[in-house]
Amino acid sequence: MLLSYYQKELIEAGLDEAGRGCYAGPVFAAAVILPVDFYHPLLNDSKQLKEEERNLLRPIIEQESIAFAVAAVDNDEIDAINILQASFKAMHLSLDKLLLTPQLLLIDGNRFKAYKKLPHECIIKGDGKYASIAAASILAKTYRDEYMQQLHHQFPQYGWHNNKGYGTSFHREAIAAHGVCVFHRKSFNIFSPPASIE
Fold first, then answer.
1. Which residue of 3, 46, 66, 168 could cross-link 137, Cys pair, CB 3.0 to 4.6 Å?
2. Neighbour-count burial for 81-116, b at 16+ CB within 10 Å, e otherwise
3. CATH architecture of the domain with residue range 12-154
4. Bridge partners of 122?
5. Would the pTM count as exceeding 0.85?
6. Do residues 31 and 116 lie in contact, with contact meaning Cβ atoms separated by under 8 Å?
7. How many Cα atoms occupy the beta-carbon half-sphere of 3 within 13 Å?
8. Are 112 and 30 in contact (CB under 8 A)?
């Protein structure tokens, strides 16, 4: 069972990202402030949930959270500053958009670039431990999946409606056959493609 809070004195925001290991598309991040008594039996790390469960939880999180925000950093910026820094930037951008300023940040993972002067706690596998981080993981994942679904219509040959830009065998074979497109992360050294699709 997920913990409702890390401590009770300060307003906490949970943060997580989605798409860090993808070959294509942006990295998304979300920040979520939940009520301390928030509970939903399905709430968990987004990777442990089925797509329909994530889609069911997203509007519940949005409606019942005290505040939430989602932000993205595109593949060109990922190539320019690297994926780790891009993940931090996406988290910072999501915090910029929050309508309420939190007093403590709970970060999924073991590293974070400090945001302003707010204290933060890095929690390994935090999306499976704290409700606010799990909620952030679900928002980041569902928003990113939705975005990749839209990109699929521009470049259907890569199968992004299914793989969401991850390096599946289908995606790798499509890159080998068609080259990379404008949404691929060139710094990821995916393949030596035969051509570049604009």
1. 46
2. eebeebbbbbbbbbbeebeeebebbbbbbeebeebe
3. 2-Layer Sandwich (3.30)
4. 107
5. yes
6. no
7. 13
8. no
Domain boundaries, the chain: 12-154
Question: Does pLDDT of 39 surpass 80?
Answer: yes
pLDDT tens by residue, 2-37: 999 999 999 999 999 999 999 999 999 999 999 999
CA dihedral 182, 188, 191, 195 (to 10 degrees): 20
The angle subtended at Cα 156 by Cα 172 and Cα 27, nearest 5°, is 65
